[in-house]
Specification:
Strands 1, 2, 3, 4 and 5 form a five-stranded mixed beta sheet that branches. α13 links the parallel β2 and β3. The chain has 18 helices and five strands. By secondary structure, it is mainly α. Helices cover 54% and strands 5% of the residues. α3 packs antiparallel against α4.
Amino acid sequence: MLYKKLHIPINLPLLDEEEVSFDLSNLNLINKIKNSNNIGMSSTILLFKNYFSSNISKFVKPSLDLFLDKIIPILFESKYKEEGLYQLLRFIDKTVFNFPYIEALKDNSFVYQNLAKVLLFSGYVTNIVTQDKKILDILQPEYAMRLNGNISFYKNTFSKIDIHKLNEEEILNTLRRSHRFLRFQILFAIINKEIDIQRASNEFSLLAQATFNIALDIAQTQISNKYNINCEEYSAIAYGRFATFSMTANSDLDLVFIYEDSPVKISTKKNVYIELFRQLIKLLSVKTSEGFMYEVDTKLRPSGKEGPIACTYDNFREFHEKNSFSWEKLALRKTRVVNENKFSIRVFDLLNDLNSKPISQKKIVDEINLMRTNTTSSKTTENRNNSINNQRSKWFETKYVGGGQREIEYLNFFYKIDSNFK
């Protein structure tokens, strides 16, 4: 019988049957997992074995049965056993036909306690651990590589990638495997209570900076070799979480790219730098068989979503001096230059100058009020539109709703700028 992959939510559904849309047989299985307290541990082990036994190779079954006999009793020790068992179901579903992975599980039973911690934590982390059996190394009790709060920890891993011996697809996949391995180390350090959330946020930010650095080095090498020129007159500005070292496991990278606007061969230079930035974004964000590393958002550039991917130094300066909204001026105060060259020093000085200018209290109040409206609105300025859609927010959405995360961050940051703001 051909095994049919499960199509179920990433975390244990809490809603009733009529509110959840997926296969009835899957729903029955999930309901049995939810009822594991009543059916008992032995029956739960049998439930898992029976579910997979008729669909897997006879060579895999003994290894899988041995794994189930050991991991399920560990999960039963937790008061959150239902979520852990649900993630175990998803974990096996994703790895059962990866024979080397199943064999690695059988041969490394000492990781089961730590693997159970992962399964009990979340579906997001469970997904990561299924993608590469090498990640099981991190779950070993004796694993020696521990986070040290220094970017060199991440740089050292990326420095082992020899881009000169790899084609572009191999570079992309190698970067993603290395990044996934490092990201999981941070996540497991949280799960294992080795670091707190604030420390983890800093570690995710250091990882992002190291990833950005290696991707930029690769992109710059590729473009310099292609055009036989030295690409140094540009800068990258990070906004938001990346800029303030407050990233999470799935934060994106908000970036604005600036290049020198010298009149000498400006069209040639523009095309070269545009290609450099596009290649950098590709290295960071394109999805391959190994997944992707970061979503890259460049919409905070002066031209917005529709214009060129980068701007000149003068364009950037003039926009923020004459045309930017107050919220864009606020956003500019949560920025930093994330690459190092002589041109970046000029951009650093420009940011300091722009951020020293006051922001109109009246304008900021008007824009906050506009954000909170439920009717479709638009800001009018040349070639730039921003619509607010009248849509009902879902219960789990906390970022853009009225009184949500975005508004709190927005107001809190403004109060820090001006304690007299009312």
